[in-house]
Write a structure and sequence with these properties.
about 0% strand
């Protein structure tokens, strides 16, 4: 019977810890932007393709001629 009381106390302490961490993260604004992360993954590929195209263009440009 004593073990049950110890387990209840430990579980309440763990739950309280999670509650404190949750409140801290909500107050710090971590959960404010819920839309952008789901949309960002759609545009990452396009940005990477554009960056690679720019690198290819930069590497393929001829050196300027000196006159």
């Amino acid at each position: 019977m004593e073990v049950i009381f110890i387990l209840i106390i430990i579980s309440l302490l763990v739950a309280g810890g999670f509650l404190i961490v949750f409140i801290f993260t909500v107050r710090s604004g971590q959960y404010e932007d819920t839309t952008t992360p789901s949309i960002r993954m759609l545009f990452d590929d396009e940005r990477m393709i554009e960056e690679k195209e720019e690198e290819v263009r930069d590497n393929n440009e001829p050196a300027p001629r000196e006159v």
